[in-house]
TrEMBL record:
Name of the protein described by the UniProt record: PGF-CTERM sorting domain-containing protein
Segments traversing the membrane: none
Feature: compositional bias, Low complexity: 509-529
Domain (DUF7827) ranges: 21-88
Domain DUF7282: 383-481
Superkingdom per UniProt: Archaea
Species this chain originates from: Haloferax mediterranei (strain ATCC 33500 / DSM 1411 / JCM 8866 / NBRC 14739 / NCIMB 2177 / R-4)
Amino acid sequence: MLVAALILFAALWVPTPAIAADEPTASFGEDVTTVTRGDVVEIRVSHSQPGTLHIGGDDYGYHLTVELGGSGTTTITIDTYNSTGKPKTYVSGGGNKTLHTAELRRPIEPAAYLMNVTIDGVERAIGQLEVEPRGNTSATTTVAPASLNDSDSKLTAKNVREAVTERQKVAKGDLAVIQLNESGLESALKPGDVTGGANASGIEISLNQLEVRPNHEQQTFLATPENGTTIVPDFENDVVYVVWDTSDLPLEGDEETYEARVTLQGNHSGFVEEDTITARSRVRLVEPTVSVNVDNETVYPWESLRVNVTGKTTLAPGSTVELRARAPGQPFLKLVPITVESDGTLTQNLTFAPDDRGLSFPMWIRDYRDETERTMRLLESDASLRFVDQETDGTFVTISEVNLSVGGFVTVETADEEPLGTSAYLPAGSHKNVIVDFDRRQLTDSELLAIAYADRDRNQNFSRAFDAPFRTGGFNVTNTTNGTNATNETAGTIIADDAMVRLEPGAKTPTPTTTTTESTATTTPTATPYPVVERTPLEPSSGTNAGIPFSPGLAVIALLLTGLIARRL
């Protein structure tokens, strides 16, 4: 039975053919390789033994073979623009190159060409070369900051691509970057020469003046280094950047319009017609200008020291301008870089230090001082007053001297904080013999309190709801950021003075003579020449703040009032 089973198995067994270990193999890097007519294409072939690459055939009117030696991966490069000569002039890589059909009179035509690899006459791989029709070359005007050329390293396509902004307006001195979306010119274009001659393969790139003035000739500038031009190819993305430094281009008036042109001249083997402008784009050359606006050129003592600066410029987006602030005669200098936004605007927030209060200084954009200079005033909180003992008829008092760093008022009130009257508006500066008329007659000898107020709402009308007393440590300053309030300056005690006022029915209000000048903050506040309001002074008794004799009862009252004032302050 065992013998019978073996005989049956032998009869039914069919041997499976084995693949020899040395059986040749081949493959293409891509099943379909695509190229635009006129560009350069790379074809990668992997093969285990020497073989032959075939492209096309008799049916295509083009049959090229390239020998593949040894084993591994062979890269074949074909320049489709120059494909009208012998294969060795436009094909590189591999071994012997043979064209089995007639030489082409025009660059290889768009079509889908069969490709295969044979080893020892046996087809081992198959693929396809897709030659696409050449499209139209187009041009777009973009702009880049002049600083792009400042680098010592060579310009790269990546540098240019990241720096440009699409727009036709270019400030003189910036870079006009003409972006050419080329098609089929990769091997024809030589970045070192685009002047249209034989060495340039007939490719000419130029900038042409459009508006010709009477008795003038049209000016044309070729894209040469002498004319400030750098050609930066990006053939991987079918783009060529023409980077043009506009510093030396003529500019008549506020604007000059140029047209960038790409012209193909001479014989291009029927690839394109001769003397054809294949792309054009306009460049509007304008004067570089900068304007700025400061939302609060005068910062009052109760306001935050945060200042918002905005502006507009014709400079290229990405350009950096320098905001400068300098206080004459002081060790104070701010240098702040501002980057131009994509829409040509400038925005910068400045924060000054509390110690900067009292300074007045110019602020401007470097190189554009005449157009941009603004005067910043960081007003400080500084006030003092002198209220001496005196006699009145009960309808007024005289404040001997008032010094205010910003405009304000002086109020007078009783020891129990009952308001009696308020002075007229007092501009910033020094005032002597300020009259405060009472809203009602004061009927008794009293110790009164004079308080210096700032006109916080700046309407020159006193309001207890908005105006605030001067304090020794300044005002409470509140910044509002993201909806939250944060106090960054702490105020001290109220600036005030008290005096004993004695009733004298015959006392009269002096007739004032006024010379008032609004003052501004300076870099040396202590030396500010304050304006003076002159009034006819009352003659006090001998001594300071003690010239009026008063009874023992009044002395007790004065002591009580002094304690109350001290408690309030």
